[in-house]
């Protein structure tokens, strides 16, 4: 079937990356923004070796899973994939997709899959967003890239973002068009400081604009009353340090079941979870699956600023977090001073190097917690297994790489026994999960 051909397709299921799946002339076709039960007329857009890709031109009959989208740019901006689906069906599809990937890629037939934890907010949940900027004189265009392209799609209101972000963005857009009439800004990150209920803006700018920008953005509150700080970041190769104006540290907290509040302070260039409410549930899930007794030594790999390290340390005898990002470790050590927590330490080095050199602090852990990047942890699995912990807790944001890694962990005598999904990203196909692995004897 040639590109450009129109064809009638019945959608049967949803694929890992969110598109609807149908068959035409005995070939699989993937069609974004469709739902299981849809019958559509689709145009073939790409012809791959093993499947086709298409786009909707007409919906003949709608699936009962369909839901009206509130967004004017849904389907073009590249941010959301599933606003056309009811939230209940999104959750069910994520559970089905996750189960399928574990079986097909991970070769895992037996694992206890606990019910998914829904997000309290289906919309307005994101406390961090990243926007691209283009100067199209005399105005800046701010928005997201269309899926799989660099075409910038402008929007007036992002429905999955915190209302604070949308409000500050309006003020920032007006300010840029009035006071920065030249192509100096390439990207804008907006972070909500949850405990302050205010916003921090990180502007990625041309290096020559740093000095001028300090003067132009000297009063963040004049741009918007809830804009508490601005960071100007030039190209790193120029050796320029970021310019920080106002308060630029984001604050959030976590309350332990015993009533202890852990206070976090995160610098503007460090990572923290985009769904603050679900982050609480994510932390509780890690603790629930760890089933700690209070005498454990815990090692956390890819610890970042200590989002999990500090809650774990409240229940452990001793906890060590490892990350190669020196700014994240600097924040983690500052957070340690801020909170009355003992028995927690941090090492600034790559996980690979730590597993090769085996510093004394990481030896003989009882529990290893892994929170790797989207690419997973395939390269370190052998080193992790050699440490001999009785349990591994694997936090994943990509079920495909998780399934691959769980299969590899079997070679190191670890089997996955329990897992739970936490819906951190409503209206998208992205899946966050926490999985418990146990060590078995070589003959087990």
Question: What does this protein structure show overall?
Answer:
An 8-stranded mixed beta sheet has the order 7-22-23-21-20-17-18-19, sandwiched between helices. The chain has helices spanning 87-104, 163-179, 210-216, 220-223, 276-290, 309-313, 326-338, 351-357, 381-386, 399-411, and strands at residues 6-10, 13-14, 20-24, 27-31, 39-47, 51-61, 112-117, 128-136, 139-145, 152-154, 185-193, 198-205, 227-233, 243-246, 250-255, 261-266, 297-301, 318-323, 344-348, 367-370, 391-396, 414-422, 432-439. It is built from 10 helices and 23 strands. The model has no long low-confidence stretch (mean pLDDT 95). It is of the alpha/beta class and 444 residues long. The chain folds into 3 domains: 1-66, OB fold (Dihydrolipoamide Acetyltransferase, E2P) (Beta Barrel); 91-121 and 275-439, 3-Layer(aba) Sandwich (Rossmann fold), CATH 3.40.50; 128-250, Beta Barrel (OB fold (Dihydrolipoamide Acetyltransferase, E2P)). Helix 1 packs parallel to helix 10.
- Helix content, binned percent: 10-25%
Q: CATH class of the largest domain, please?
A: Alpha Beta
Reported for the largest beta sheet, the result is: 8 strands, mixed
* Lateral strand order in the biggest sheet: 7-22-23-21-20-17-18-19
Total number of domains: 3
Quaternary form: single chain
* Structural Rg: 23 Å
**What structural class do the secondary elements suggest?**
alpha/beta
How many helices? The count is 10
CATH architectural arrangement of the largest domain: 3-Layer(aba) Sandwich
In CATH, what is the homologous superfamily of the largest domain?
Vaccinia Virus protein VP39
- Report the end-to-end length measured between terminal Cα atoms: 51 Å
Low-confidence stretches are none
- What is the average per-residue confidence, as pLDDT, rounded to a whole number? 95
Strand content bin: 25-35%
Q: How many β strands by DSSP?
A: 23
Shape: globular
């Amino acid at each position: 079937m040639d590109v450009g051909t129109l064809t009638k397709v019945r959608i049967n299921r949803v694929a890992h990356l969110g598109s609807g799946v149908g068959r035409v002339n005995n070939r699989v076709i993937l069609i974004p923004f469709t739902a299981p039960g849809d019958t559509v007329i689709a145009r073939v857009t790409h012809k791959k070796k093993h499947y086709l890709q298409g786009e909707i031109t007409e919906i003949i009959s709608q699936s009962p899973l369909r839901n009206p989208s509130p967004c004017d740019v849904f389907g073009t901006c590249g941010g959301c994939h599933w606003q056309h689906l009811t939230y209940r069906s999104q959750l069910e599809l994520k559970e089905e997709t996750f189960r399928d990937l574990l079986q097909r890629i991970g070769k895992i037939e037996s694992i206890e899959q606990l019910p998914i934890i829904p997000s309290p907010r289906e919309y307005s949940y994101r406390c961090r967003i990243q926007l691209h900027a283009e100067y199209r004189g005399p105005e800046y265009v701010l928005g997201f890239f269309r899926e799989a392209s660099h075409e910038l799609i402008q929007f007036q209101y992002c429905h999955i973002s915190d209302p604070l972000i949308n409000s500050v963005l309006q003020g920032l857009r007006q300010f840029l068009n009035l006071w920065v009439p030249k192509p100096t800004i390439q990207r804008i990150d907006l972070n909500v400081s949850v405990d302050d209920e205010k916003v921090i803006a990180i502007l990625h700018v041309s290096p020559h604009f740093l000095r001028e920008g300090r003067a132009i953005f000297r009063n963040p509150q004049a741009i918007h009353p809830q804009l508490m700080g601005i960071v100007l970041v030039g190209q790193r190769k120029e050796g320029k340090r970021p310019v920080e104006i106002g308060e630029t540290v984001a604050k959030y907290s976590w309350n332990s079941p015993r009533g202890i509040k852990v206070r976090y302070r995160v610098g503007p260039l460090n990572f923290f979870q985009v769904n603050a409410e679900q982050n609480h549930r994510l932390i509780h899930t890690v603790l629930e699956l760890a089933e700690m007794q209070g005498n454990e030594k815990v090692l956390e790999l890819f610890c970042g600023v200590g989002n999990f390290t500090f809650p774990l340390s409240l229940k452990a005898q001793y906890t060590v977090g490892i990350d190669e990002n020196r700014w994240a470790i600097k924040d983690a050590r500052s957070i340690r001073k801020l909170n009355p927590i003992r028995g927690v330490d941090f090492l600034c080095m790559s996980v690979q190097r730590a597993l090769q050199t085996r510093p004394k602090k990481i030896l003989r852990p009882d529990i290893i917690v892994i929170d790797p990047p989207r690419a997973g942890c395939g390269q370190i699995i052998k080193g992790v297994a050699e440490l001999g912990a009785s349990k591994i807790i694997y936090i994943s944001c990509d079920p495909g790489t998780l399934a691959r890694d769980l299969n590899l962990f079997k070679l190191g005598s670890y089997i996955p026994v329990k897992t739970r999904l936490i819906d951190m990203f409503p209206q998208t196909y992205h899946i966050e999960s926490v999985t418990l692995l146990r060590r078995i004897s070589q003959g087990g």
